[in-house]
Amino acid sequence: MSEVHAITRILERVQRGEAGAADELFRRVFDELHALARNHMRAQGPAHTLQPTALVHEAYLRLFRGVDPAYQDRSHFLRAASRAMRCVLVDHAREKGRVKRTAPGERQPLDGLGELFEERAQDLVALDEALERLAAIDARAVEVVELRFFGGRTEDEIAEILDVSARTVERDWQAARAWLHKELA
Description:
Layout: H1 3-15, H2 21-42, H3 52-64, H4 74-97, H5 113-118, H6 120-137, H7 139-150, H8 155-162, H9 166-184
Helix pairs in contact: 1-2, 2-3, 2-4, 3-4, 4-6, 4-7, 6-7, 6-9, 7-9, 8-9
């Protein structure tokens, strides 16, 4: 049985509430989720205080916390995992945004330099808000952005996950980039 089908079978067991199925799923997909988390973290800069392993664990908790998950297959689960990681990063960015910032051009003491690296977090919050607005217009384009920007997936991989053509993914990506550029300018 292929790994894709094996994951789908485990997801079915999770949906039926079988003891240990969620733990087995976590073990089977951890490496892939960790790679996804590393891709999410690349956009955050090297001094980000959240680590990929912590991002995986927090996202996984969100995926299975107190609800009966209804993931249809591996692709659906990975899309949900990518969205959960985005939510964790945005929540982290919002928390960091509560820290008082130095005025532009004002000198920052050396012990506060770590916070400078976290300033990109505000960009992530703005991007998240723009993606929420875009979701009302084109939900698939948001999935393409999440999988490409946050997940580091190629157009071909995204096409397979979303079950559309690579050309459709390319068009969605171009349209989403243009729309986001206008929104974030």
